[in-house]
UniProtKB/TrEMBL annotation:
Pathway: Lipid metabolism; fatty acid biosynthesis
Pfam families, per the entry: Eno-Rase_FAD_bd, Eno-Rase_NADH_b, Enoyl_reductase
Catalysed reactions listed for this entry: a 2,3-saturated acyl-[ACP] + NAD(+) = a (2E)-enoyl-[ACP] + NADH + H(+); a 2,3-saturated acyl-CoA + NAD(+) = a (2E)-enoyl-CoA + NADH + H(+)
Name of the protein in its database record: Enoyl-[acyl-carrier-protein] reductase [NADH]
Positions of the catalytic residues: Y235 (proton donor)
GO biological process: fatty acid biosynthetic process
Gene (UniProt): fabV
Organism whose genome encodes this protein: Bowmanella pacifica
Length: 392
């Protein structure tokens, strides 16, 4: 099958197996080239391992520290007529590379929110790994089925209090326009916390602890985005921000729950980057395009793999960790510098449709978006007939 991108709004509905393998290879190459110093993880569980920050975490653990990685993701397999999802191809590529390097990797594809998945993971840890010393919680999902009641909760990306009208880069039409996002009601806020808050992270650690598969001194981290004024209306002070606040509550619960193991739990604050999850958030395309322009100009731009490599080597496994004022591991400190934010604000205030390319790095944003699905890589023949089937 000849596979060309099929973009619908903020999502691409297909993926290229060869391009996804290139995407994974580039991240592995970066980590090998940078190297790691000192002690790191040995047996790692990555929840949400197939794309974005979770995939990068798996790559740094596996190819930086040589750790054994067990991953969980929710991806679609290919059929003869339809491609698999990008995360499926990424995972197949990761397994290929791990096999060649002699690094243990196993991946379970299914619903991480379910009790069954927790049990399946525990069985594999017992059979293959003994105990886990790092749990990365990197799920991003629009819905969650409560494993005990069967009720399905959906998250929303809405402001809290009042409607928000804001400037927007409309990626379908490639124009600057305005969008109005309606304020969430109480149910929508609570449901978003239920999906993207800390409850499931807590349930994972509880299940792993009760099964006695957490090592002494184990570490766990979940990921958050803490931006500044520009993103507050739709992120920090909105439904998703409320869910992220709940991670702070869960951190304390997990610390108490694992105190006898000397366990450590952190929420790590990361850069805004282009992922399938972030491209669905209104304002992010404009914010990230402006941010890329400023940070690339300063030489401080970091994508997913650079952020996670930095998180592991300079923070999570460093002698001295860097915290923000909320007690999160602070990895997006360069993005949040006042001078960076002020210049992003200036772009935001003045950019018009005619000046998108001059004032922002929308081209860079769009290329990153294509890369997520394995498109837009030099050296990949997108006119070639390729099999959509892949396995791991
Ligand atoms: P992503 O969409 O790239 O990855 C989500 C992962 O979750 C995938 O591996 C997917 O397969 C998995 N997943 C989703 N539902 C699942 C389910 N029911 N069962 C099993 N796996 C499931 O997202 P991302 O942007 O890398 O986000 C990961 C975390 O990082 C989130 O907590 C997000 O809020 C946070 N974060 C993202 C950004 C950003 O700009 N993208 C910035 C800071 C923090």
């Amino acid at each position: 099958m000849v596979i060309q991108p099929k973009i619908r709004g903020f999502i691409c509905t297909n993926a290229h197996p060869v391009g996804c393998a290139v995407n994974v290879q580039k991240q592995i190459d970066y980590v090998k080239q940078q190297g790691v110093q000192g002690q790191g993880p040995k047996n790692v569980l990555v929840l949400g391992c197939s794309t974005g920050y979770g995939l990068a975490s798996r790559i740094v653990a596996g190819f930086g520290y040589g750790a054994k990685t067990l991953g969980v993701c929710f991806e679609k397999e290919a059929s003869e007529s339809k491609t698999a999802s990008a995360g499926w191809y990424n995972t197949a590529a990761f397994h290929n590379q791990a096999k060649q390097a002699g690094v243990y990797a196993k991946t379970l594809n299914g619903d991480a929110f379910s009790n069954q998945m927790k049990q399946d993971v525990i069985d594999i840890i017992k059979a293959d790994l003994g105990k886990i010393d790092l749990v990365v919680y990197s799920l991003a999902s629009p819905r969650r089925t409560d494993p005990n009641t069967g009720e399905v909760y959906s998250s929303t990306l809405k402001p809290i209090g009042s409607n928000v009208t804001t400037k927007n880069l409309n990626t379908s039409k490639r124009v600057i326009d305005e969008i109005t996002v309606e304020a969430a009601n109480e149910d929508e806020i609570a449901n978003t916390v239920k999906v993207m808050g800390g409850e499931d992270w807590e349930l994972w650690i509880k299940a792993l602890k009760e099964a006695d598969v957490l090592a002494e001194n184990f570490i766990t981290t979940s990921y958050t985005y803490i931006g500044k004024e520009l993103t507050w209306p739709i992120y920090g002070h909105a439904t998703i921000g409320k869910a992220k606040e709940d991670l702070d509550r869960a951190t304390q619960v997990i610390r108490n729950m694992t105190a006898d193991l000397n366990g450590e739990a952190f929420v790590s604050s990361l850069n805004a980057v282009v992922t399938q999850a972030s491209s669905a958030i209104p304002i992010m395309p404009l914010y990230i395009s402006a941010l890329f322009k400023v940070m690339k100009g300063d030489g401080t731009y970091e994508g997913t793999i650079e952020q996670i490599h930095g998180l592991f080597t300079d923070n999570l496994y460093a002698e001295q960790r860097r915290f923000d004022e909320g007690g999160h591991l602070f990895q997006n400190y360069k993005e949040l510098e006042d001078s960076v934010q002020q210049r992003v604000q200036k772009v935001w205030d003045t950019v018009q449709t005619e000046t998108i390319d001059e004032m922002t790095d929308y081209v860079g944003y769009h290329n990153e978006f294509l890369h997520l699905f394995g498109f837009g890589f030099d050296g990949v023949d997108y006119d070639a007939d390729v099999s959509p089937l892949a396995d791991w």
